[in-house]
Amino acid sequence: APAFTVAIDGPAAAGKGTIARAVARHFGFAHLDTGLLYRAVGALTLDGADPVTAARALDPRALEDARLRTANVAQAASRVAVIPEVRAALLEFQRGFARRPGGAVLDGRDICTVISPGAEAQFFVTASPDVRADRRWRELRDKGDTRTLGEVLDDVIARDARDSQRDAAPMRPAEGSMVLDTSEMSIDAAVAAAIAHVEARG
Ligand code: C5P
């Protein structure tokens, strides 16, 4: 089967991971959550590693670590993600994944703008900070985390600012990408809209 790339960007907790997984399942495409690459490097720096060395030595097969899903690691990820050499070290793996035969879905911050600007289908999935913080807070609460909604909102806002204001591959909607604002949309409706858009591009 030929390569077909679905590229999905957007801020934290906008629903891009859920949409990416559903689109991949629907079309039988492979899925890469590129945030895990930055989270893995971020986690290694919390253990004292140098970020550029860690990124160059990263084994993408070691990405299933549940420890990567914590708020501390998310903040560490967004701090290493501003470093151009870190981004450069992770580029080839992502480009290769995007062009694998049989189709691929990648979600992150710079997939449409940098990793795969030629992707056949491109999305910017977003939602208001309040809605995203509320979603993330409910998820964390269900896992037993005791942080307040206000603390989660502060985290979301800090990470948005760092991701969209950095010089290296800042998060922004690519020209020609479909913008899906999920603030007032159910996940099912957002997934259906994304699948319809991919089908129309195929
Ligand atoms: O998507 P996730 O929340 O796991 O991403 C963690 C951090 O990794 C983001 O806040 C961002 O700084 C960085 N990232 C990035 N480019 C990507 C994916 C993630 O800079 N393609």
TrEMBL record:
Name the InterPro entries on file: Cytidylate_kin, Cytidylate_kinase_dom, P-loop_NTPase
Superkingdom, natural source: Bacteria
Q: Which organism is it from?
A: Tateyamaria omphalii
Transmembrane stretches, start-end: none
The UniProt record lists the keyword Hydrolase: no
UniProt keyword annotations, A-Z: ATP-binding, Cytoplasm, Kinase, Nucleotide-binding, Transferase
* Entry's EC annotation: 2.7.4.25
Q: Which GO terms describe its molecular function?
A: ATP binding; CMP kinase activity; dCMP kinase activity
A Pfam family of the record is Cytidylate_kin
GO CC aspect terms = cytoplasm
Where in or outside the cell it occurs: the entry states: Cytoplasm
Q: Which reaction does it catalyse?
A: CMP + ATP = CDP + ADP; dCMP + ATP = dCDP + ADP
Q: Which residues bind ATP?
A: 10-18
Gene field: cmk
Query: Example GO biological process term?
Result: pyrimidine nucleotide metabolic process
Report the protein name in the record.
Cytidylate kinase
Cite the SUPFAM superfamilies for this sequence.
P-loop containing nucleoside triphosphate hydrolases
The family line of this record is: Belongs to the cytidylate kinase family. Type 1 subfamily.
Q: Where is the Cytidylate kinase domain?
A: 6-47, 66-198
